[in-house]
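Two quick folds needed for the group meeting slides. Do the first one here.
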Amino acid sequence: MQNHIIDAVNRSQEKKRPNFQVGDRVVVNIRLKEGDKERLQAFRGVVIAKQPKSGRGPGAMFTVRKISEGVGVEKIFPIHSPVVDSIEVETSSDVRRSRLYYLRGLKGKKARLKESETFSDLVVEPTAAQTDEGMMTQGTEITGGDTATSANPKEAPPKK
């Protein structure tokens, strides 16, 4: 009985957050209160860990690492905290570990992660020139035979 009540309270405290994985580059907007004013501050970095590994539940946390003026800075954020205003995923990376603590010892180009290809990156939008050519080829009829001969004599290659 009491478990059901606790679960209901925990579910009511959870906020809608985007799905992100370890290795993603994220922007975490934090609410800061300075005196009587409140403002948002962005913390942009790579997610190096999630606690628990699934990243679910009311007590779930994640660690974000960034390099600021040559110094590594890590912050641990509760996912469902009211201090965290929003989480935006910039890019995703292909990683094979659930914790990226090895990035702490790497600098420069060695600390880069390989970005993953998504389906939207592979789709190519047709340009206006390609659509015009496509419309021209749709109207022609292919009758078989020699491709050099054409119904229009102006388009035929010169004979020797």
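Then this one, please, same format:
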Amino acid sequence: MIARVITTVVIAATTIAITRAQDVALEYRVKAAYLYNFVKYVEWPGKARSSILICIAGQNPFGDELTLLIRNERVHGLPLAAEVILEPRADCDVLFTPKTSNVPAYLRTAVGMPTLTVGETDRFLEQGGIVRFVAAGRNVRFEINPVAADRAKLRISSRLLQLARIVEPESDER
């Protein structure tokens, strides 16, 4: 009888975990992994910080995926944290703006700040964003605007730049 109860609990817990993982689209599981890895290849200017904060603007397409991915992780000796923000804030080290957010408002707040801005809208780089996710068939790739990164005083590793498509938009609205 006890074995049957334990088996039932294990099956139920497994089913809940699988369902929860499937709630987040594969595209956003991949993007969450990219965000985590971008942090490893970016250097921020020398301000004292206690953690590296990854902000998600507005609606969170990651579910718990990003939080679970970075839990107990450290980069550059600092713990990582993720937070959904409903208003633009200046204290984000990384700012992901999903297509459902007010991208221009969030980018305006990041002007002059050492914030790695990451987005997925068509004109993101032209609006002054630094990294843009692009769909390539069933894959997710990314583009980097090094001029915007320089303006934010961020140093992006050459290893990351080699993996990206480099884009220097003609009209940078920032």
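Slide caption for protein two: The helical segments are 2-23, 26-40, 65-70, 103-110, 146-151, 158-163.
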